[in-house]
Every structure is written in C-alpha cells, then in structure tokens.
Amino acid sequence: MDVNIERRGHSFQKGALSKVNIGSSWFILSILVLHVFVFTVISSIFAHNLPLDAVESLYWGKEWQLGYFKHPPMSAWMIDIVVQLFGRADWLIFASAQICVVMAILPVILIVRERFGAKAGGYTALAAFLTHFTTISAVEYNVNMGFLPFWGWMVFTFLKAEEKDKLGWWALFGILSAGGMYGKYIAGVFLITVTLWVFLKRRDLLKRPGPYLAAFLFLIALTPHLIWLVHSNFLPIEYAMGRSGSDDKSWFDHILMPLIYVVEFIYSVAPMLLALAIAAGWRRISTISLTRIKAGVNRVWADPFMFAALGPVLVITVISMVLGADIKTAWSIPLGVVFAGLIGISAAALETGSGDFKNRFMVSWAALYGTLVLVYIAIFVASPLAKNKPARMLHDGPELARLVESYWYSHETAPFEYVVGSRWPGGTVAWYSSVRPSLFEKASLKYAPWVDMSDLHQKGALYVDYKKPRAMVAGMCATDLQKMLWPAAGGKIYKKHPEVWVATLKPATGLDAVTCVGN
After folding, report:
1. Where exactly are the transmembrane stretches of this chain (predicted)?
2. Residue 470: φ, ψ to 5°
C-alpha cells in the first residue's frame, strides 16, 4: 500500500511538472517576482538594522558627489533616488537590492530567448538564482548591486549592436557602458572583452561608424567623473589596489591568486552546475569526452554571447596573473549572472530527447534555492545563539537613533544637521534619525568632502562612534560625553555587547565658542 502511495505521489509530481511551460513569459515573470518577494520579506522581518554597505550607500547618496573615496557614484545616486521618491523605509532598500538583481538577469534572459529559444530563457531565469551572488550576498544594497544591472544591459546592447550594426544600438551601448563605469570600474573588464572580440572576430566593424560613436558617447558621458578622479588623486583606484594587495607580491602570487579566483568563481556557480548535472544524469555526464570539450571551446569562440559570458572570467584571471592580485570574488558578481545563460542554453539542449530532464531540473532547483533561502533565515536565527556579539543586521538601528536623539535634545533645541563618527554607528544614526543629517565620516574631508567646515563650526554636530572623542574634534569641543549600549534585536544583551560614545560638538571659536576641556 505504501509503495502504491509513493508511486501515485511520484506520478502526480511528474505530471504536474510536465505541464509547466518553462519557456513561458509568465513562468519567467513569476520566478523573478517570487525572488524579489521572498528575499525582501525575509530581510524585512528578521533585520533590525540595514547592513553596513547599505548604510554607507545611503549617506553617500544624500550628498550627490561625482565620486567617493571608495567607489564611483552611480549606486549611491540610484538609492537616493529611491529614497527621494518613496521615502525612508528599510524594506524599500532591501527590495531595491533584489530589483537590481532582477534587472541584471532580465537582459540575459531576453538575449538567450532570442538567440537560443524560449526554453533556454526559462532555464536561465531559474539558474540565475542558484548562486549566493543573487541570493544571500545580494540582500545588502551596495555598489555591487547598483552596478549589476549595467553589466547585464551592456551585454545585451553590445550583442544587439554587434549583430545589427545600427547606430542606435551602438549609442545605447556607449551610454550604458559609461553608466557601468559610474557604477563600478569592473565594467572595464567587459569593455576589454568586447574589444578582444571585435579585434579577433569582427574587425569588419572597425570600418563602420558604430563603434566610434559608442566610444565618443562613452567618453563624453564619463568626462565629469574622470575630471573628479584626477582632482581626487584617484582615491577609488588607490582603494581598489589596496584591497587587492597587488603591492610587494611574491612570484608565486602570480600563479596562486588567479587559481584561487577561478576556484572561487566555480564554487560560486556550483549550485547551477549541480542542478544541471542532476537533471542530465550520470549516463550523460559519463559521455563527456575531450572531443566534446574541444567542441564546446570552439562554440564559445564562435558565439558572441558565450564569449561575453566566459571572456570576462579569462580577462580577470589574466589581470590577477599579471599583477599577482587577490581579486575579490564579489568583484565578479555580474559574471555569475551571465554565466546562468550558459546553463540555460545547455539545459535546453539536454532536455531534447529526455522526458524527465525538466522535472529533475525543477526539483533540484527547488531544493537548492530552498536551501539558500533556509541558510539565509538560519543566519538570523542561529546568530544570537552562536555569537557573543550581535550580527550587524541584528543591531537595533532605530532604537539607537531614538536614544541618541533623546540625548541630543536634552542639551540642544535645534535638530542636528551633522553627525561626526565612523560609517557604521554614525551612518546608522544618520539614516534612522528623524532628520536626515550629513555624516562627517571620521571627521575627515578625505572621506566626506561635501562638508562645509564653516557651516559645521557654526551649527555644531552630534558625535557618535565606538571611540571616545578627544577634547577637540574637527575644530569643535566635545562636551557632555556619554557611553551607551547599542540596543540589539529583541533587547538581547550579548557578552561583548557593542557600546558607542556620544557627545555634543560645539564651536571652539566665534561668538558661541566654548572652552575645550581635556587633552
């Protein structure tokens, strides 16, 4: 009897899944909407504080600079537009990150559907969510999320321009490429990739006006940022080089670092490959031969989309080899999104002649995607039990802002327009306070060049940081120093509970000057 029930259940599952039209636009749309909903809701329910990079993007975005000491400005501009249009709410920031993911995947789906068929597009939509790039790592709105859509649409517009050779497509490619560079300099990797493709496979395009129009619009659009970059002494590039650790490298780093990068990239897309392998089955996998691998390499060399998917991986590997640089896997997040297109193409081809392929792929997708969702939830649930200090998203930002504002208004009557401190506590207060002050990060114009020092000295500021303030901070006297606990979710007190110092910063000169007490 149990055997019959199991067989009937299997038959029902097989029958239900066989009715799913994986290439349907409605199916693809439902997957995209489901993902945005699931990760936005989970984050909104469990998180009590925006993550660090999101906080940083928000206080950058408020200032509308042409660049910041870490990154170019596009992601900060984008999130501030969201805030200006819809107001301040954490769920909007979480949703914005997921919408960026979907907007990056959409052009990949469109180009795959057009070139390889509707089924390939459907499998691409599923595969794109089988990586931490688009799930667990994508919950935090930051420069990677803001940049992500530009990479997808750069791929789309270049392939359209390369195929149709219409000036309109070339113009769009040039403008979007400039937008990509305003998002993150890793966009240059794709530009190197397409340049290689044109010189190696499509030199006929060099006799046409399209590529030159794209280059002209790209340079015109990028000029304001290039001018800022020169005036800032190339701060973002200095930051990136510092993170890559490309100085003082040993000879073996030129071998080890690119190998580590490739292994980490394969690890990041491994769930996609696993779903494909499960669906294909061992019998098909065992037939893979050197001849088939060579045929696959030749196909990549012949197809512009496949080259656009794998070429950037090769370019980054070569850069790492030449510089001996530790390339951060997060820097290649968009590569994982486009790689999903290769999985979609392969899955559509493997489905032919295999009645159970689609069912196995969808079941394995549901299991792997569900695992990623459960891991994300488990991080919130297990963190308070396993850690002796709260995870960043389990700090209680709104409550800290309430305590700090209560402290401020016990000394002052006017709202504070400036917060002085480090990016995490200071940025959190800047986001959650009833007013939206500017953050003077580390009291340094290097990190916050938007601050008008004369205005700051006239109005004073609120100090919020982990470090006890000195007697004088940014030319102002620190008064009424207090240390307070940073509240955590649910009121939990941890063994190593975070504490912050607060102080009112008052002018040290002028009519309202006070005397700084201490060293």
Report:
1. 26-47, 91-112, 124-147, 167-200, 212-235, 255-279, 300-323, 329-350, 362-386
2. -75, 175
**Residue where one domain finishes, among candidates 380, 403, 435:** 380
User: CA dihedral in degrees (160, 166, 169, 172; nearest 10)?
Assistant: 160
How many domains, in total, are found in the chain?
2
CA dihedral of residues 211, 215, 220, 225 (deg, nearest 10): 150
Q: At residue 118, does pLDDT exceed 80?
A: yes
105, 334 Cβ separation under 8 angstroms: no
User: Are residues 365 and 254 part of one domain?
Assistant: yes
| Overall pTM surpassing 0.90 (yes/no) | yes
- As a residue count, the chain comes to 519
CA distance 274 to 436: 46
Tell me the helices (H) and strands (E) count for the chain, helix number first: 20, 6
How high does pLDDT run on average in the chain? 91
Higher-pLDDT residue of 320, 288: 320
Say how far apart CA 170 and CA 382 lie, in whole Å. Answer: 50
Q: Which residues pair with 484 in a beta bridge?
A: 500
- Per-residue pLDDT of 138-163, as tens digits, reads 999 999 999 999 999 999 999 999 99
**Could you give the CA distance from residue 86 to residue 234 in angstroms, rounded to a whole number?**
34
